[in-house]
Model the fold of this input.
Amino acid sequence: MYVRIGLFFYFKRIEIHGVDNVPKNKALLLLGNHQNALLDALLIATKCGRFSYYLTRAAVFKKPLVSKLLKSLRMLPVYRIRDGWSNLSNNNAIFETCTNVLSNKEAVVIFPEGSHNLARRVRPLSKGFTRIVFDTLEKHPELDLQLVPVGLNFVNATQFPDSAAMYFGEAISANSFVSENRNQSVVNLKERIKFELGELTTNIPEDNYEEVLTKLDVLHVNYLKPKEVNTCIQSNFENCIYKSKGSNQFIKPLFKSLLIISVFIPYLIWRFLVKPKIKEPEFIATFRFAMALTLVPIYLIISAIILFLITSISVVLIYLLIVLLAALLAVKL
Done:
């Protein structure tokens, strides 16, 4: 609930489409594209209707305290080649865990691209998720394992406030891909999931990516409607639907400035201490959101206590109301 409230105040709008496609009482793999680091997982966690496990890159589990926290949140470390060849064998235990979880008709979230990237396209899929699928069905051939592709779309993932749209595709039976030739089954499954993800999110061809992206930005297309954007690209920009500009371009900065003043110290810490140290732009939104969920509430509580000691409870309530309204108007307008 706390994360849900945080997401409400972070995003101007969150659109959810096709959530009825998510099976409620079956073994389930949710397979999403991966643009926005931890926020991708948090959106799925709070909006899919299933309490899930998450495969997460092992690099973030290095510190014992962080590792314990992440594992308590049902996050499981997955090792990649960049983590060292010697560590890849550790995945055997994780994949076995996934098989056991799925055999109990629970849900696992995987980002099959294998890494995050802000590029508005579906990147080649790794075969790790296919191993989980076929290993599970090999041990539990009677299991009705369902696969649901998830398209995550953002207007501008590094900016605040942002807007997001999440599309849940139709459930796919994993058993339909089982054949005597496992290698071919892997290829067929990867191709199908990549195709489905390409329908649920903006999918700009890699060859002329920058050129196409520039044209789409100039046309002000609505990236929250990937089907329209993909149609625009495929029609060579002849069949495009444009997004109307907001009418609050002058009022919104006023409330955003008021919000910054209200949380001035956390803002300075973010702006000059935290943000400059973020090496991967995909993590900007994650760290900003983390600060909003931790440092900002602490700052407001301390400010409220100080105000209460030197003034009265009514002044404290007025202060908190002003901050709340400033946040709502700065984000939602």
User: Anything to note?
Assistant: The CA atoms of residues 152 and 166 lie 5 Å apart. The beta strands are 11-17, 28-32, 52-57, 75-78, 107-110, 146-154, 162-168, 172-173.
